[in-house]
Design brief:
Layout (H helix, E strand, L loop, with lengths): L13 E2 L6 H4 L11 E3 L4 H14 L3 E4 L15 E4 L6 E5 L4 E5 L4 H8 L4 E2 L10 H5 L8 H4 L6 E7 L5 E5 L4 H10 L5 E8 L1 E2 L2 E11 L4 H12 L4 E10 L2 E10 L4 H12 L3 E11 H4 L15 E7 L4 H12 L5 E6 L21 E7 L5 H12 L15 H7 L2 H14 L4 H6 L6
Parallel strand pairs: 2-4, 3-4
Antiparallel strand pairs: 1-2, 5-6, 6-10, 7-11, 8-9, 8-10, 12-14, 12-15, 13-14, 13-17, 16-18, 17-18
Helix pairs in contact: 6-13, 7-10, 10-11
The structure holds flavin-adenine dinucleotide.
The site of flavin-adenine dinucleotide has 34 residues, from β3, α4 and β10.
């Protein structure tokens, strides 16, 4: 292909391998790729033109917002990457209703920074460089998750470019089936260009950092989960479990969605007793400091991983032992725990395409190269025996079995029916699941 065959509307918005910008645009956070071109739309019309061009040229299409997807499918080799980073507007539409319009190309750090002066926050994830589009089409397990719920639970409308080039605004009244799928399974529906999201009235939070030695029999993890099962919803936690020799260490961040220090301390104190305390530190911070602009960086394939996850209705002693053993065994993985109960479980299982509304804990397992997926599968197996379903955004291997863990039973059937209706040729789902879906 030559620049002369490119549509006029995309003049100056197409980056070919010969372009000096290509090096910083070709890859994702987890994978180095070599696409034929990266298109940088600056408007919804540009997205429509880029999509039509990519379809007409018969090249594979990758859709990218922030480039942080763990599967690396927001780039490809030899195809067209539609990079939406130019669609990054963040605008408060209605302060009283806390309604915010967010372009998919914004990073969550930019969203948090833009909303902070208005005293508003949207719970997204833990990393500021993650893009709006990938996260808000699948879930959004953030620092305020037990209080706020998932990011998708607050999406009030979405603007989508469908496979045939039509631009649709969908909400509870308009194209409700599409709206259902966008919230949890949006990646196979089309290209979302913007969301309207209801933010929460919150600027500052209290943050506790704890480092605990993990009991080898799992009681640290069961006590953590027991406390979270009845703790005030304002408390959300994320923990990393790492090995230090044969000892597992839990590095826990507890975020209290509010600034009442007395209440926050009472919510956090029981966590200090879950394992032998090695260190602690509690401080007030703007929410925007947690999802920080200091996280922003170009994605150059710098962090390849093999990652998988599963959801637990409760942390049984068996599950706690299996997770602890995955860290302390001869081939330790990095394990993470997120509290996902509270407000997440207020939503009916069939209200959105994220069906896992009876889970309390999200468990994530990761190994880094040169260790590979086969090794992760071996380590994960005993943990996976306790999990029910999985979250699409913490999985690096997308295949038909993974799809059914993300979208179990009737949810998966409904997702596939909607994907097939709006994308009969499967351009979006084949980019995600190249081996096909049954
Ligand atoms: C360091 C790190 C920390 C993370 N922390 C969290 C966390 O705390 N909580 C959490 O919930 N998740 C977290 N994630 C997972 C994150 O939600 C996903 O990786 C998400 O897909 C990233 O969004 P993105 O826009 O940056 O991804 P991209 O790589 O741009 O996109 C990923 C996929 O999403 C689809 N997609 C992207 N944009 C659009 C769009 N506009 N329309 C339709 N489909 C689209 C495409 O299929 C694409 O392949 C983390 C990931 C990393 C790497």
């Amino acid at each position: 292909m030559t620049p002369s065959t490119l549509p006029k509307e995309l003049d100056g918005k197409v980056v070919l391998p010969s372009d000096p910008r290509y090096r910083r645009l070709r890859s994702t956070y987890t994978k180095v790729s070599r696409p034929a071109m990266v298109v940088l739309p600056q408007s919804v019309t540009d997205v429509v033109v880029a999509l039509r061009y990519a379809r007409d040229s018969g090249l594979p299409i990758a859709v990218r917002s922030g480039g942080h997807g763990l599967s690396g499918r927001s780039s490809n080799d030899g195809g067209v990457v539609i990079d939406l980073s130019g669609l990054n507007e963040v605008r408060v539409l209605d302060r009283r209703a806390r309604l915010v319009r967010v372009g998919v190309g914004a990073r969550w750090a930019e969203v948090a920074a833009a909303l902070s002066p208005a005293g508003l926050s949207i719970s997204s994830g833990d990393h500021g460089n993650v893009g709006v589009g990938g996260l808000a089409t699948a879930g959004g397990v953030g620092w305020l998750v037990r209080d706020y719920g998932l990011t998708i639970d607050h999406v009030r409308a979405a603007e989508v470019v469908l496979a045939d080039g039509r631009v649709v605004r969908t909400d509870a009244e308009h194209e409700p089936e599409l709206f259902w799928a966008v919230r949890g399974a949006g990646a196979g529906v089309g290209i979302v260009t913007a969301f309207e999201i209801e933010a929460t009235e919150l600027r500052d939070v209290l943050v506790a950092q704890l480092t605990l030695a993990v009991d080898p029999h799992g009681s640290t993890l069961t006590r953590w989960a027991e406390h979270l099962a009845q703790a005030p919803r304002r408390l959300s936690t994320a923990a990393m479990i790492m090995s230090s020799g044969r000892q597992a260490i839990l590095s826990l961040t507890a975020v209290y969605a509010g600034t009442d220090a007395g209440r926050a301390r009472r919510a956090v104190m029981p966590l200090l007793k879950t394992g032998a305390l090695l260190d602690q530190n509690i401080q007030r911070a703007p929410y925007a400091a947690l999802v920080s602009t200091a996280h922003l960086h170009p994605n150059l394939g710098q962090q390849p991983t093999s990652t998988t996850n599963g959801l637990l209705p409760t942390m049984t002693p068996g599950a706690a032992q299996a997770i602890t053993a995955a860290v302390t065994g001869p081939r330790p993985a990095l394990m993470q725990l997120r509290s996902v109960g509270g407000a997440v479980n207020d939503v009916a299982a069939d209200a959105t395409a994220y069906a896992h509304r009876n889970s309390a804990v999200l468990v994530i397992g990761t190994v880094f190269p040169p260790r590979d997926r086969t090794e992760l599968d071996d380590i994960w197996r005993p943990v996976g025996a306790y999990t029910r379903g999985a979250y699409a955004n913490f999985e690096s291997r997308l295949d038909a079995a993974a799809f059914r863990r993300f979208y179990p039973g009737p949810t998966g059937d409904r997702v596939l029916a909607i994907w097939r209706r709006h994308d009969p040729d499967g351009i979006f789902r084949s980019a995600l699941y190249p081996a096909g879906l049954s």
